[in-house]
Design a protein that fits this description.
about 170 residues; elongated; about 0% helix; about 55% strand; mainly beta; four-stranded antiparallel β-sheet
C-alpha cells in the first residue's frame, strides 16, 4: 500500500552575518493497511538548518516517524519504505530560495552524506524500516528514521531567510 503526504518549508529570521535555512518539514498522512494494521500515520518534523555562514558546510537533522495501530491477534511485523520527492531543484541539488539568491542543499540517508534520499531514481535511494506491532485492542508501534541534511560550502549568497519554494513529498509504501 502506498500513501503520500507533503512537507512544507519553514522560513527563519534574518541575520546580518549568516544565512538561515529551513528545508523539509511537517506533513502527516493517514491510511489503513489491509490485514496488517488497522491504521497508520506518518509525520515529519521541521528540517531547519539554522544559521549558515556561507563558508562552511552546514549539516542538520530531522525525523520522520511511521506509526501503526493493530487491534487483532497475533502481533505483526510492519515493513515499510520511505521515498522523498525532489522538491525544488533536482536530486543532484535541492534548492531553497530567499533574498534573491538560491541556496543548494540535499537530504541524505546517513550522517556520511553519501547517498541522497529520494525515490530510487537518478542515483537516489529510499529508506526501508520495520517494527513490531503487538496484537490486541489499541496496540501500536512506531519507527523513526533520521533525515540527514547538508548545505554544501562555499555558497556565495546574501544573508536572510531561505526556504523551499514547494514542499517535498514523503511517500510511505508498505
Amino acid at each position: 500500500m502506498q500513501h503520500t503526504g507533503h512537507l512544507a518549508s519553514a522560513p527563519r529570521t534574518r541575520s546580518r552575518q549568516r544565512c538561515v535555512a529551513g528545508a523539509i518539514v511537517a506533513g502527516a498522512l493517514l491510511a489503513a493497511a489491509e490485514s496488517r494494521a488497522d491504521s497508520c500515520s506518518v509525520s515529519a518534523a521541521t528540517h531547519a538548518f539554522g544559521a549558515y555562514d556561507t563558508i562552511n558546510a552546514k549539516p542538520g537533522t530531522s525525523a520522520i516517524t511511521v506509526t501503526c495501530t493493530h487491534t487483532n491477534s497475533p502481533a505483526v511485523r510492519f515493513n515499510y519504505s520511505i521515498a522523498l520527492s525532489i522538491g525544488p531543484g533536482s536530486y543532484a541539488g535541492r534548492q531553497m530560495v530567499g533574498t534573491g539568491d538560491t541556496l543548494v542543499y540535499n537530504l541524505y540517508t546517513s550522517v556520511a552524506h553519501t547517498t541522497v534520499w529520494g525515490d530510487g531514481t537518478s542515483g537516489s535511494a529510499v529508506v526501508a524500516g520495520s517494527f513490531n506491532v503487538p496484537g490486541g485492542a489499541g496496540r501500536s508501534g512506531s519507527d523513526v528514521q533520521t533525515v540527514f541534511g547538508l548545505i554544501g560550502a562555499p555558497q556565495n549568497v546574501l544573508p536572510g531567510s531561505y526556504a523551499t519554494a514547494s514542499p517535498i513529498t514523503v511517500t510511505v509504501t508498505y
